[in-house]
Specification:
This protein is mainly α and 72 residues long. The chain has one domain. It is 82% helix and 0% strand. The chain contains 3 helices and no strands. It is elongated.
């Protein structure tokens, strides 16, 4: 954990050494990359769900059906 904190601190110091415009550009780049990572994660989850559905591993029903099954 100490190494991660040290790396994180170094990153903060490196960003603080940049001029404000460069910091803003960096923030924008990081935000775009995080959004892309979330999209990639969502696409992966959707693909896995579709695969499970295609294999018949997904069941459907009403809330009442679910509650009845939980009671069993």
């Amino acid at each position: 954990m100490l190494e991660k904190t040290s790396t994180f601190q170094k990153a903060i110091e490196a960003v603080e050494a940049l001029d404000p415009e460069a910091q803003a550009i960096l923030v924008n780049i990081i935000q775009k990359r995080l959004k892309q990572q979330r999209r990639d994660d969502l696409l992966k989850a959707v693909a896995e769900a579709r695969e499970a559905y295609a294999k018949g591993e997904v069941r459907s029903g009403t809330v009442a059906d679910l509650m009845a099954e939980l009671d069993d």
